[in-house]
């Protein structure tokens, strides 16, 4: 009877492709970081005599441009979508602040329509965003 000998080989990990994997990982991380950027609407901020800084982490931003267009966190929306979003935010985190950001030349009736919607929803944590002079 013939005995077969088994040779034990140590596993070999190819190191040539490691730089390629690191490069692809770097590209992936950079692309994912771009996804979380803040959308802004181009407006001319109003000025105020006094202002108070608020935490910018947990906010719901409602933008109103000079023509009266409404944007919710930088995405075009209407009053119904804004009411739904505010209601959902209030259910999940009642202390979330609503920032109302209106262009300096926006007619007050457009700002008032958003304020009336927030008043109907009884949402009380609202800030008006103005130009920062610092």
Protein traits:
five-stranded mixed sheet; 134 residues; Nucleotidyltransferase, domain 5; elongated
Q: Could you outline the blueprint of secondary structure elements for this entry?
A:
Blueprint: H1 18-35, E1 59-64, E2 70-72, E3 75-77, H2 79-92, E4 97-102, H3 108-120, E5 126-128
Helix pairs in contact: 2-3
Distance between the termini: 92 Å
Q: For this structure, what is the CATH class of the domain at 59-128? A: Alpha Beta
Percent helix range: 25-40%
Strand order, largest beta sheet = 3-2-1-4-5
CATH topology of the domain at 59-128: Nucleotidyltransferase, domain 5
The overall strand count is 5
Radius of gyration based on Cα positions: 27 Å
Helix tally equals 3
The average pLDDT is 80
Oligomer: single chain
The proportion of residues in beta strands is 15-25%
Largest sheet: 5 strands, mixed
From the spread of the alpha carbons, the general shape counts as: elongated
User: What structural category arises from helix and sheet content?
Assistant: alpha/beta
Low-pLDDT stretches = none
Q: Examine the secondary-structure arrangement and name the CATH architecture of the domain at 59-128.
A: 2-Layer Sandwich
Question: If you had to describe this structure to a student in words, what would you say it looks like?
Answer:
This protein has 134 residues and is α/β, with parallel strands linked by helices. The protein has helices at residues 18-35, 79-92, 108-120; strands at residues 59-64, 70-72, 75-77, 97-102, 126-128. Strands 3-2-1-4-5 form a five-stranded mixed beta sheet, with helices on one face. Helix 2 packs across helix 3 (108-120). The termini are far apart. The mean pLDDT is 80.
């Amino acid at each position: 009877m013939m005995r077969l000998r088994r040779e034990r080989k140590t596993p070999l990990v190819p190191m040539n492709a490691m730089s390629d994997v690191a490069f692809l990982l770097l590209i992936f991380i950079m692309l994912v970081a771009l996804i979380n950027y803040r959308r802004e609407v181009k407006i001319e901020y109003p000025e105020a005599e006094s202002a108070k800084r608020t935490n910018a982490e947990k906010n719901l931003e409602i933008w109103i441009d000079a023509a009266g267009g409404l944007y919710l966190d930088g995405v075009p929306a209407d009053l119904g979508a804004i009411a739904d979003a505010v209601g959902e935010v209030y259910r999940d985190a009642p202390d979330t602040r609503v920032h109302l950001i209106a262009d300096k030349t926006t007619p007050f009736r457009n700002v008032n329509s958003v304020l009336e919607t927030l008043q109907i929803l009884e949402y009380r944590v609202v800030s008006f965003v103005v130009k920062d002079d610092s």
